């Protein structure tokens, strides 16, 4: 399917690896210019090099111009980091057509051990930063008549995970905010906002939660991995490329009638009817 977004500009946060990289790959493969962001410059540059190769291959395959890939290593949760992204040489400024918000989840643990600073850090990264990015770009999208905002949240928004209380709280706050804004006047101006709720994907984040579970239970990692795969009806972990494909579709012209939604992608693990 031609998603009809070649030549658009996207900002993809947390794009050096994992789900963010999967989203950037899918967009570049569809001819979208990307500004990718992460904190670690070396890892981010390696991701940018891989994306550039993919962009050239996609251009030869599909006959459109090769997508531009710009890497900006910074902390997107800070004012300075966001300014660096918006002023990147060769980039679109704040005139992004697509914004994919993504931040590493806060650490697992026992809520009794979390002080105020831990909560503020989680809310800043997983709620307030996406809101700031939306605020900076949404009016320009509306003025141009096209915009796609996709927030990477978590399946824990629908089915909270006990050791991920910081994530449960912060991401649920973002979800509530998006539910209102997505249905405001911007909906009639070609701008959509949706959330993707990943389940168990083969990422460093999952590896970290499994290590925490192993430490808590005293079991070894292989046993934890087998047990976690066993509770997924698909009997496997998801791949970031699968996640990226869903993200790219939500950014497409064809997805213009989908907004304010929470899209679960979890191998069937959530068992609720609604």
UniProtKB/TrEMBL annotation:
Signal peptide: none annotated. InterPro entries: NAD(P)-bd_dom_sf (IPR036291), SDR (IPR050259), SDR_fam (IPR002347). Belongs to the short-chain dehydrogenases/reductases (SDR) family. This is Putative oxidoreductase, SDR family. SUPFAM superfamilies: NAD(P)-binding Rossmann-fold domains. Pfam families: adh_short_C2. It comes from Advenella mimigardefordensis (strain DSM 17166 / LMG 22922 / DPN7). It comes from the Bacteria.
